[in-house]
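User: Hey, my collaborator sent me this sequence without any context and asked if I could get a structure. I don't really work with proteins. Can you help?
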Amino acid sequence: MAVKWFSEAGVEVVTLTVDVGQGADEAELRERAVAAGASRHVHVDARREFVERFVWPAVRANALYEGKYPLSSALSRPLIVEKLVEVAREVGADAVAHGCTAKGNDQVRFDLTAAALAPELKVLAPVRVWSWTREEEVRYAEERGIPVPRAHRRYSIDQNLWGRSVEGSELEDPWTGPSPEAFEWTVDPERAPDEPLEITLGFEGGVPTSLNGEEMAPEDLVTRLNELAGAHGVGRIDHVESRVVGFKSREVYECPAAVTILEAHLDLEKLVLTKEELRFKSLADGEWTRLVYEGLWASPLRESLEEFIASLDRPVSGEVRLRLYKGSVAVVGRRAERQSYSLEVASYDEGWYPTDEQARGFISAWGLPTWLARGARG
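Assistant: No problem. I've predicted the 3D structure and written it out in structure-token form, which is a compact way to encode the shape of the chain:
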């Protein structure tokens, strides 16, 4: 619609699609862009780059915004802007445009990243100018012969390899349960297979590299895990979210691979890292996640935190065994090349055991500040 709007105003438009795993047909997109008035269409396959440069750092950071959202859409935006700026400079454009509304988070992510990477380019947002409702947008498209997928008539949908987000329609009422029509990647947990599925994820340096013992390309591993976990109802997220722009929104997500991988990664970290490392890393993880969600990917702090998180995760290599069953994912086994866990120390049956004297000495030293404080207060 924006392409048609610009072309009717006499503006030359070069369109760009960045494939981050949304499943769109390249030929169809090119045909639609040209039919709407674009002088040229550029397609970039960035699936592997998306996983390696954006998704894997999110895994290392255990990135769940407000404890639930795996940042699926938020992670794709800075990569899309990078490619947008590259193409704009290549064709000699004086501006870039996006389709974000004035109420969403994505406008912040697009505008801020574009300004950081290419301050010489204007950023245009026609949807912010229109202030149309979804029904008005559909009507505008239909009047000009622009086909609108049926799913997008009812909901606002965004998807990539890391997840699928759905909002709008009945979902705007937080009391109303989502319609079965909202879901595509996950089966209803109640209708998932009666037999659980066990899988094994192999990790190196904090990121998954193999599934059930098979080494896989990053984008293939995520895709396959989306299929396996989604078939068992894993990955549905219903979340009231605090947006960057100041209000809350109800969001429904499908993130089968993300939910599964993050559960496995956090568990493996607990086996490998020390108590102090885990405690401090959780602070860095939370701040990294907030910066990405709020559109501050270009922030120097995000870059520094990412380096710190990656350094802590270097020894996080091993395997995690998980059970997928009717919407749940549970870790049932884990082993690592380097562990902070020691069976000899932890076992109650044999091995190391402190003496009564050692135990009393530890408890006395550990409790001293508490005893002194209570004594000082009478």
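In plain terms: Residues 369 and 375 are 10 Å apart (CA to CA). You can pass these tokens on to your collaborator as they are.
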